[in-house]
Amino acid sequence: MTPDLIQPPAPVAFIGLGVMGAAMAANLQRAGFRLSVANRSRAKAVALEEAGARWCDSPAEAARGAACIALCLPDTPDVEAVLFGPGGVAETVERGAVVIDFSTISAAPAAGFAARLAAERGAQLLDSPVSGGPGGAREGTLTCMVGGEAVAFAAARPVLEAVGQKLTHLGPAGAGQVCKSANQLLVAATLQAVSEALALGRKAGLEPEAMRQALLGGSARSFVLENHAKRIIDGTLAPGFRAELMRKDMRLALAATRDHGVFAPATAMAAQMLEALVNGGRGGLDSAALGVLVAELSGAPATG
């Protein structure tokens, strides 16, 4: 069955109202979708309710009658529970509905969830992890890396366009998650390199911000150098994207490289550094706190 185009004012449910999810849900509401929301804590839904969203006590209640159900959850077990656990989406989702999972989870389970939802309920699941951070979520400029059936991607495009600016259909279920692992290993490996570069500059007596500006003028320019290096230099490490979440993502990336037989020493090193950062008690800080750890290991001042 080919899903109908899901466009405003179609009913859309959003489950998972963390920093990213709440902002994405607000953009769906502003786009004109009739929004229902569910979350472990109702307090995070207050602003959405005040703007007209309907609160639901369970994912099943939110999914009932929705043309599209969006998820934004921390990890693979959370997605499985929301989809198939007691009071889950699978209890009420309608045939032909599209579920969009914006979470970053393991690719193989994502593909399994899509197959199960199609077999049991006749609904389509797209895995669509995002990149762009809280700022991109607020501004509706996220990058959506999408795996799943092409017809479901086409049907859900208006929903995706409400939260993202660059939408790419990458292949079958799970493909979006593989691409997100590639994204995260690039970010983490670059963050490690930037952290080492800043430590080198400090130990050699260079002024860190002047060095950053010089590097931004050449081939080393990157989002990480522009944004994360500034955080490291200024010591502004409130998240952002928590280090413990980046550790989770790097575990997924490392598993993906192993599953596909990729020689990935940079991924392995960055993953181990994130393990050290979180195990050292800094999991609640922004992932840019990796720069502080590298500075400490180098015997260099991290800030100032």
From TrEMBL:
User: Looking at the record's lineage, which domain of life comes first?
Assistant: Bacteria
MF terms in GO: oxidoreductase activity
- At the top of the EC hierarchy, this enzyme's class is oxidoreductase
EC number from the UniProt entry: 1.1.-.-
Q: Which UniProt keywords apply?
A: NAD, Oxidoreductase
Q: Which residues form the 3-hydroxyisobutyrate dehydrogenase-like NAD-binding domain?
A: 174-290
Q: Which PANTHER family match?
A: 3-HYDROXYISOBUTYRATE DEHYDROGENASE-LIKE 1, MITOCHONDRIAL-RELATED
Family the entry assigns:
Belongs to the HIBADH-related family.
Q: What is this protein called?
A: NAD(P)-dependent oxidoreductase
Q: Lineage of this protein's species? A: Bacteria, Pseudomonadati, Pseudomonadota, Alphaproteobacteria, Acetobacterales
